[in-house]
Amino acid sequence: MLKQLLPAVSCLLALLSACEPNVSESLEPIVPTESTGSLAGNDNDAPADPPSETDTAIVAALAAVNKLRQAGCNCGTEPYPATGKLVWNARLFEAALHHAKDMHAQNYFSHTSPSGENVYHRLVASGYISAAGDVLTYGENIAFGDFDLNTAVQKWLESPSHCANMMRDTYQEIAIAHDGNYWVQVFGAKRK
Asked: Cα(95)–Cα(39) distance, rounded to whole angstroms?
């Protein structure tokens, strides 16, 4: 029985990954190379809006995450009490979309890119923050699969570590993006 479960568990772990910063994660920006460039694109403070064809799905996914947060839930065996709503953030969307596109283009599945960029570096590059002191907390969920946005959110909900990321009461903002079969959900809260 154990021999039959191991491939299924390995497959699940390969398809979903949750990340929150840890003490070994670099909080120093990586100097962008020509291939990665700046996510902000220019010095404007107005980031690109999410693509119009996904607006309805994004609103529905945000509503589903907020409904879960307002009701509270069990993530695996761990109970999480009700907590506040998250708001959409266009800079987090830029960071999420950049990571989804990068994973798709370079054919990898990880919170850290082959060049060493992690979620913190993407938050700086997108203009969400400019230094480590600007952010209270952040996290990232990633998934891989041929499914829609609502299914991606459902899959994260079914995974205890991803669900815990969605329920973390320190987060205030969210964005979700995808490119091909690569899905990225980014959370954050900035110092005021």
From this structure: 7
